[in-house]
Design brief:
By secondary structure, the protein is an all-alpha fold. It has one domain (2-106). It is 77% helix and 0% strand. It has helices at 2-15, 20-26, 38-57, 60-78, 84-106. Helix 3 (38-57) packs antiparallel against helix 4 (60-78). The longest helix is centred in the C-terminal third of the chain and has 23 residues, at 84-106. The chain starts with a helix and ends with a helix.
Length: 108
C-alpha cells in the first residue's frame, strides 16, 4: 500500500505542479504551441512520470511502462478520445498495476 500511495503522491505532483501550463498546452498534437514539437513536450511529461515510478518501485522496466502508458493516455485525452476522468482513472489504475507488479517481483 505504501508503494501505491507514494505513486499517487508522485502522480499528483507530476500531473499538476511539475507539468504546468506550458507542458499541458505544448503536449497537444492538435493544438501545439508554435515552435514547440508536441511530441517532445508529451515525451518530457511522460518521462517525468516514468522517472517517478522507477524511483519509487526501483524498476526501470516499470518506469518505462509508465512512460508508454502515460504518453498514450495523454495523447488520447488531448485528441478528445477520452475525457479528463477517464485519463485520471487510467493513470491511477496503471499505478495500482505497477505497485502490484513491484510487490510480486521484488516483494517490496
Amino acid at each position: 500500500m505504501n508503494l501505491f500511495f507514494a505513486m499517487l503522491v508522485a502522480h499528483a505532483l507530476a500531473d499538476y505542479p511539475l507539468q504546468g501550463d506550458f507542458l499541458s498546452r505544448a503536449k497537444n498534437r492538435h493544438a501545439p504551441l508554435p515552435g514547440v514539437p508536441w511530441y517532445q513536450a508529451l515525451g518530457a511529461h511522460a518521462i517525468i512520470h516514468g522517472a517517478a515510478v522507477a524511483l519509487i518501485t526501483g524498476s526501470t522496466v516499470l518506469g518505462l511502462a509508465e512512460v508508454v502508458v502515460h504518453a498514450v493516455t495523454d495523447d488520447l485525452k488531448t485528441s478528445g478520445r477520452i475525457d479528463y476522468n477517464a485519463d485520471q482513472a487510467i493513470h491511477i489504475t496503471a499505478k495500482a498495476i505497477w505497485a502490484a507488479a513491484a510487490i510480486w517481483v521484488f516483494g517490496s
